[in-house]
Design brief:
Elements: H1 3-7, H2 17-30, E1 36-39, H3 45-56, E2 61-65, E3 85-86, E4 91-92, H4 95-104, E5 111-115, H5 118-122, E6 129-134, H6 140-150, E7 154-162, H7 175-185, E8 189-195, E9 198-203, H8 211-220
Parallel strand pairs: 1-2, 1-6, 2-5, 6-7
Antiparallel strand pairs: 3-4, 7-9, 8-9
Bound molecules: magnesium ion.
The site of magnesium ion (MG) has 4 residues, from loops.
């Protein structure tokens, strides 16, 4: 399977093909230097693109999700999907669909599922990551927790990707945009062009203080 074959597959998820293709490209670059991690595996769409890149590089993708669906995917909410309802429990369970996607695409030896809450999975994490994708819950608390828990594990030259960035509040929730701008304001990342709502930041090498960081230091040190 290659990118072209993958892009013809109708996978369940909330990401434009253009964005998913960019995930693949960035992961191809990143995965040579270490494993990738995504937060918000859902039904496996982004894991398919990231996973394909990791497989091609002999790397690994950690896919983190509690698989209970986010707040807007619960019964009665806007993005509720009956296919993801577990009739036994009456609760959302996206893990069976996620596993099916990974199995169908033969990515079982590349994608490592972590079924847990983000902050719990991060507690004893020590492995440097070449790429982190934040695409989990969209409340400020959820996005901030993901950023706070994982950004420090990104190795120099690695990538921080944030999905669902809307600069117009009428188009969507503002938490991912806030975190994106907080990360930028830290001066620790270089900004790469956005692809639709996918923000792409690259962790700067430790040598060389960025202009942004220098400017912030100047303002804070007055
Ligand atoms: Mg998303």
């Amino acid at each position: 399977m290659n990118l072209e074959e993958l892009s013809k597959r109708a996978l369940k998820g909330f990401m434009a093909v253009e964005e998913a293709t960019r995930l693949y490209e960035v992961a191809r670059e990143a995965a040579r230097h270490g494993p990738c991690l995504e937060i918000g595996g859902y039904c496996g769409l982004s894991a398919a693109y990231l996973g394909l890149a990791c497989r091609e590089r002999g790397s690994v993708l950690f896919s983190l999700d509690h698989h209970e669906g986010s707040e807007e995917q619960q019964p009665g909410a806007e993005y509720f999907d009956e296919e993801l309802l577990d009739p036994q429990t009456g609760r959302i369970d996206t893990f069976p669909m996620f596993r099916k996607t990974i199995r169908d695409l033969n990515l079982e030896n590349t994608v490592v599922s972590i079924v847990a809450r983000s902050a719990v999975a991060a507690r004893f994490w020590r492995t440097p990551l070449s790429l982190v994708l934040i695409d989990g819950g969209h409340s400020f608390e959820a996005v901030f927790t993901d950023y706070n828990s994982w950004a420090a594990h990104i190795q120099p030259g690695g990538f921080l990707l944030i999905h669902d960035i809307f600069f117009d509040a009428a188009q969507g929730g503002q938490a991912p945009r806030c975190i994106y701008q907080m990360a930028l304001a830290s001066g620790l990342y270089a900004e790469l062009p956005l692809v639709r709502t996918l923000g792409i930041l690259q962790r700067l090498p430790p040598e060389g203080v960025s202009d942004l960081a220098r400017e912030r230091w100047r303002r804070l040190s007055v």
